[in-house]
Amino acid sequence: MTKALEGIKIIDFTHVQAGPACTQLLAWYGADVIKVERPGSGDVTRNQLRDIPDADALYFTMLNSNKRSLTLNTKTPEGKEVLEKLIRTSDVMVENFGPGALDRMGFSWDRILELNPKMILASVKGFSEGHHYDDLKVYENVAQCAGGAASTTGWWDGPPTVSAAALGDSNTGMHLAIGILTALRQRDVTGKGQKVACSMQDSVLNLCRVKLRDQQRLDRLGYLEEYPQYPHGEFSDVVPRGGNAGGGGQPGWVLKCKGWENDDNAYIYFTIQGHAWAPICDAIGKPEWKEDPEYKTAAARQPHIEEIYAEIEKWLADKTKFEAVDILRKFDIPCAPVLSMKELAADKSLRESGTIVEVAHKKRGKYLTVGSPIKFSEMDIEVTGSPLLGEHTDEVLAELGYSDDRIAAMHEADAV
Ligand code: CAO
Predict the structure, then answer these.
(1) How confident is the model at residue 131 (pLDDT cuts 50, 70, 90)?
(2) 407 CA to middle of ligand 1, Å?
């Protein structure tokens, strides 16, 4: 079976998480992704948070599968020459260096276009070009703070809180992947390359758009009916942090199940979907609430929402999170157990679907990684181990037409 992106050659000039997450996705779908790394050290994540001495860290292996690794010192004349050849023969170059680094290296957009007018140059930066912070270097949590996630996450009486989900890094990489595929499609029509840029702030904000919705509602109404602050608490003039409240039109909360005293994740998320009120009453043994005017409508329930959650928790007290979900699913109630990473790693369905896969690595042995979250009916996705530093250097140089002697000389000069 052919892969959708077979024949697309990508210079992967990325590091840490945002860029590598993007190029890994494209590699899964068949692109030839050549990761360009500094000789000797490579992507900084190879060494960060190591769990096995002398073996690439999971931080690296889980973001760089299905790629080839080429070491290249692009600040040497030989390194620049190799990069130029790569640019001439590739379709896409992806980078997430600090602002201005590519220009300082001698590869401005104008120069890249001169080398290859069909090139798609895809960049991640912390802030978009022209933004008053566009000179800043940015990591995940910085982006979550700048993009509105932190100010709207956590508890109202606590500080702004960042999410464990990589909203700044991997999320921006996913946005960039969409941009690259869009530019490739446009190039099919126009024959021209282009620059594609994603900022981490913008990508976080894109996922926080419901909070911008809420800011405008708050400006108009002075309250937000789905937040825990309503109707008994106070609102200021900014969107508050809402704890675990449902962010849509359905109230919801994380509720304790049997064993919560000793298990940090013995909880379910329970959603009170408006039209499922009758089944909820049946499921939790409160049939009398179905027609009670104090509970019958969403508006009537809101002032009692804490009491309703407390009642559901009483019902949950003798049920594990899995038992509870097995009962509630029969009533069509949107809910799920709160799953720990340990539970997810062992989850049979996730293994069967290829969402969690075990792959082999030359030094580490086997490790778990997250496979493609996108499934295709006409394409199998095989996740392979990440490359060792420089594993494919000679192979790529030979493909570019370099002789064995020239390759040996480049090694000698520490250019590769
Ligand atoms: N050969 C020679 N030099 C190389 C090289 C290579 N193969 N690869 C990188 N370099 C050089 C760059 O040219 C740059 O040199 P100068 O600063 O002298 O021009 C230098 O290495 C490092 O660049 P950097 O600014 O990207 O690195 P940093 O560690 O200081 O910053 C980060 C890291 C992530 C904060 C910054 O890259 C950044 O802000 N990136 C954009 C936003 C982003 O993607 N952040 C998310 C990272 S995931 O959490």
Answers:
(1) very high
(2) 26
Distance CA 31, CA 185 (A): 15
Cβ–Cβ contacts within 10 Å for residue 271, how many? 19
Cα–Cα distance between 123 and 97 in angstroms, integer?
Answer: 8
DSSP class of 302 = G
Ligand 1, residues 41, 44, 64, 137: which to mutate, most atoms within 8 A of Cβ?
137
Pocket lined around ligand 1, Cβ cut-off 6 Å: 16-19, 36-38, 72-75, 96-98, 101, 104-105, 124-126, 137-140, 169
Taking 80 as the threshold, does the pLDDT of residue 347 lie above it?
A: yes
Interval between CA 396 and ligand 1 midpoint (Å): 23
Mean model confidence pLDDT for the chain = 97
What is the distance between the alpha carbons of residues 389 and 38, in angstroms, rounded to a whole number? 9
Residue 101 C-alpha to ligand 1 middle, in angstroms?
A: 7
Nearest CA to ligand 1 atom 5: 38
Alpha-carbon span 394 to 314, nearest angstrom = 65
Distance of CA 176 from the midpoint of ligand 1 (Å)? 18
pLDDT given for residue 288 in this prediction: 96
Helix, strand, coil percentages in the chain from 3-state DSSP, rounded to 5: 40, 15, 45
Q: How many CB atoms lie within 10 A of CB 74?
A: 19
Q: Region 319-337: what's the mean pLDDT? A: 97
* Nearest Cα residue to atom 15 of ligand 1: 101
Tell which atom from ligand 1 comes closest to the C-alpha of 37. 7
| Average pLDDT of the residues in 235-251 | 92
Three-state secondary-structure class, residue 20: helix
pTM: 0.97
242's CB contacts (< 8 A; 6+ apart) are: 152, 156, 226, 227, 228, 229
Residues labelled catalytic: 169
**Across 166-173, average pLDDT:** 98
pLDDT of 1: 60
